[in-house]
Amino acid sequence: MTKQEKFKRDIESLSDSIKLDWQDIASKQLSLEEKQGIIQHIKWCISELKELHERLEIEG
Predict the structure, then answer these.
(1) Residue 45's CB: how many other CB atoms inside 10 A?
(2) CA neighbours within 13 Å on the CB side: how many for 36?
(3) What is the pLDDT of residue 60?
């Protein structure tokens, strides 16, 4: 697997994780603390996606 393929796979995986987190928030009655935890995870995923995208453009 090339670096570019690995970056693309990682980006897809994080993107899927973000989608699932938003679905969790929308489909369940969660406490404020639970929602904040999911939102923090989404923010982390977005940050990682940005970093992977930058690395893909630089190294890809």
Answers:
(1) 19
(2) 3
(3) 63
Instruction: Give me the long-range contacts of 46-54 (CB less than 8 A, separation at least 24).
Output: 46/18, 48/10, 48/14, 49/11, 49/14, 49/15, 49/18, 52/7, 52/10, 52/11, 52/14, 53/11
Per-residue pLDDT of the chain (60 residues; tens, 9 = 90+): 888 888 788 888 888 888 887 887 788 888 999 888 888 988 888 888 888 888 888 876
Q: Residue 28 corresponds to which amino acid?
A: K
pTM: 0.63
The pLDDT, as a whole number, for residue 19 is 85
The domain locations on the chain are 3-59
Among 48, 15, 17, smallest CA distance to 25 is for 17
